[in-house]
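Researcher: Here's a chain I'd like modeled. Treat it as a single chain, no partners, no ligands.
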Amino acid sequence: MKLILSISWRNIWRHPARSGVLLGAIIAGIWAGMTLSALTNGMIDQRFANMIQEDLTHLQVHQPQFLTEREPAMYMPNADSILKYLQNDTRVESAAARTLVDGMIQSSLTTSGVSVRGVDPVREPETTTFHENLIYGNYLDSDVRNPILLGKRLAEKLNVQIGNRIVLTFQDVNSELSSAAFTISGIFRTNSGPQDERVVFVRSDDLSSILAGQQIYHEIAVMLQNEEMSNEVASDLNNRFDGISAETWYELSPELRYLNDFGNTMTVYIMIVIMLALAFGILNTMLMAIFERMRELGMLMAVGMSKTRIFSMIMTESVVLTFLAAAAGMVLGYVSINMMSENGLDLSAVGGDSLAEFGYDSVIYPFVTGADIVNTAIIVILTALLAAVYPAIKALSLNPGEVVRE
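Model: Modeled as a single isolated chain. Structure tokens:
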């Protein structure tokens, strides 16, 4: 084996330029694959965290038909009992009840359709991080009568600012149209452009008094100590309380379900595509080397070198070449990704702001996991072995007598 390895090493560097080009191509491919995978990981992880922590939470409780019908009258009559139960559950980190309705918002300039969310100014900041998106003004705990929070994009569309009054019109629990004036107390900006334009926040008790003349809740958002307890807690709530539907984030959000199911395999798919391209490079280089060395290989066979050793020598050349490039590519990728992850990669300069239309940050913090590195190593090894098989078989088909005579 030592002899085979020594001959293979010398053969690799017999043509330094050709071997160098192949090494560079593999290094660049692995670096690109790892970087792209790290960016994908960062985008998915940030999107996941934003949706869970800012709005969706680990599980939600509704009246069973509310999410499909969204009728104001479909509130939960036992919401207080559910909240009390959740507050005494050690698996629950925090819970906040919300009052929800769809309606129209009107300024002196124009009107627009919005989703109105009535939240508890105390419990909501303990449950979600949405209040951190406030960029101007004050949160809903201000002393202003009927305060309302608007997204920056909606405020620009309505041509309003802090202190201005707007009118909300919506259907109450008796299916009658109701209108009320609200004062803009704050303006927020999230990573989702559509949310900034279509969602407004008011105090739950203000909204409930207009909708029903009493406190009502359509939704209870629950953050758990451990996300893995979501199914267990949701099942306990459904068994304990009648007339409600407790669902986990996995059931509530098809987008997050897709990201969760396919995000972990994204790295493998990306690396497979890159390795397929590199496999043809390895195959081409090794075939060229075989054709150039046909006389030499024929001589080796003629003096008694077995076909098994010839096959091993060709395979070793390919594997050693690929391993060298793979190690360098993974080190380069790991170092560059760590550098980018410290300060983030700002994509706004290349049109990254359009990512906000889909709810993604324009500044991405890429990262790689141990599984990504292991998968990369496995794919590289398989690629090297498969790409070297055909050149090695081609070498075995040589007839030593004919080659020597030629």
